[in-house]
Amino acid sequence: MSTNSHRPRPPASTSSLPVAVIGAGPIGLVAAAHLLEAGETPLLFEAGPTVGTSVREWSHVRLFSPWKYLIDPVAAGLLQRQGWARPDPEHLPTGRELVEVLLEPLGDHPALRPHIRFRRTVVGVSRQGMDKVKNSGRSDTPFQVITRGADGITERCLVRAVIDASGTWTTPNPIGAGGLPVPGEQEHDDRIDYGIPDVLARDREEYAGRRILVIGSGHSAFNVILDLVRLREAEPTTEVLWAVRRDEPGLMFGGGTRDALPARGKLGARLKGLVDSGQVAFVTSFRTQSVHTDGDGRLEIQGEGDRLIRSVDRIVATTGFRPDLSLLRELRIELDPSLEAPVRLAPMIDPNLHSCGTVRPHGYEELKHPEPDAYVVGMKSYGRAPTFLMLTGYEQVRSVVAGLTGDMASAREVRLTLPETGVCSSDLPEAGCCGGTASASRELLRT
């Protein structure tokens, strides 16, 4: 535990209160572990019935980062004191392994388990008795966290600080290029899956022998397409179509052998081979305008102009995610207007500017908001940017907890080492790499 004797004390009205952590995924659990290590009391709210609820939805997917980039040292120390064995650092775990090997042991740890409140959805956070307009006494007033249980009953808890690690998995982007659902999208949502369905096992019956359209150009799309191609080997009547908004698809396949995370490079190379060989019908420059049914009850997807994709049975939307900001509405949160990420962090991760190099170290300073002691961390802190590594989130919460407990030297210290991708915004093999920018993509892949 930290022994910094010069840390400022919280106001007397809040000093005995716990620190709220929203979300019991990897980043939220590690945040709670750091709070315990610092002598603080975490109060962890999880909407689902278990730790890692969102991870369990993609449990069939293998990550492209090995264990050495997925384990926080403080959490590991907490577990090892209970006899936990560290996994092979070079192994690429699945989502299921991530849950079983890391998240469940953390959630069941005797020091952490009493502080987790399952089936509690956070619906709002504010300063007790204050809306966001009021100035006087704000920083000395505790936060009020309002949660709703499965029975619909709400509860209110007072805390001295808030760390929102709720992620973005439950708020996927729609398939429309304009950021809003297109006509017919909500009406046909029973035939649209957002994310990475388990087409080889859990969801096999809905996909086998069907004509499937995958929309999106990221690693989630890669995963789904590779699984659909494997499904077609057993179910030959399965058809795979892939539509992307990009006009030039070259960059989306990544750096191949030049990628410092080999599994990620291999993933892109495999997809390019499937497209080049015609095994996957590939449509570029397709911007969805509407979804409707034809005379046979199958889906038709209208693009710009007269472009039309016909006779589709199901759509898989892998168009990214966005943060749910509704629970933070009564806090003074300052976000970049385009990315919806903290304003100091946004220029470091903006996909319009950055595509390669390393994730620049960031933490307490970059994640601060005008509302003292309120932080958004993990994938949610990246807003709509698609670039995030789990290790980045661990460094965020380490720094934030140090700042909350007054250990400012540690909060501002850089303790982050990530692999460089060696891939730039160029299809030219002789192109060098731009340094110091964010390039790490979502950690999901299928090898």
Summarize the structure.
With 447 residues, this protein is α/β, with parallel strands linked by helices.
Q: Compute the number of helices.
A: 11
CATH superfamily of the largest domain: FAD/NAD(P)-binding domain
In the CATH scheme, the class of the largest domain would be Alpha Beta
Class by alpha and beta content: alpha/beta
The share of residues in extended strands comes to 15-25%
Low-confidence segments: 1-9, 421-447
CATH topology of the largest domain: FAD/NAD(P)-binding domain
Provide the spatial order of strands within the biggest beta sheet: 4-2-1-8-17
Average pLDDT works out at 86
What is the ordering of alpha helices and beta strands?
Answer: EHEHEHHEEEEEEHEHEHEEEEEHHEHHE
Major sheet details:
5 strands, parallel
Separation, N- and C-terminal Cα atoms: 40 Å
How much is the radius of gyration in Å? 22 Å
What is the count of distinct domains? 2
Helix content: 10-25%
Shape: globular
In CATH terms, what is the architecture of the largest domain?
3-Layer(bba) Sandwich
Count of DSSP E strands? 18
Q: How would you sum up this structure, described in words?
A:
With about 450 residues, the chain is α/β, with parallel strands linked by helices. Helices cover about 25% and strands about 15% of the residues. It is built from eleven helices and 18 strands. The chain has helices at about 25-35, 55, 75-80, 95-110, 205, 220-235, 260-275, 345-350, 365, 390-405, 410, and strands spanning about 20, 40-45, 60-65, 115, 120-125, 145-150, 155-160, 160-165, 190-195, 210-215, 240-245, 280-285, 290-295, 300, 310, 315, 375, 445. The strands form five sheets. Strands 4-2-1-8-17 form a five-stranded parallel β-sheet, covered by helices on one side. The chain has a five-stranded parallel β-sheet with strand order 9-16-10-11-12, with helices on one face. The chain has a three-stranded antiparallel β-sheet with strand order 5-6-7, with no helix packed on it. β1, α1 (about 25-35) and β2 (about 40-45) form a beta-alpha-beta unit. α1 packs parallel to α4 (about 95-110), α1 packs parallel to α10 (about 390-405) and α6 packs across α7. The longest helix has 16 residues, at about 220-235. The protein starts with 18 loop residues before the first strand and ends with a strand.
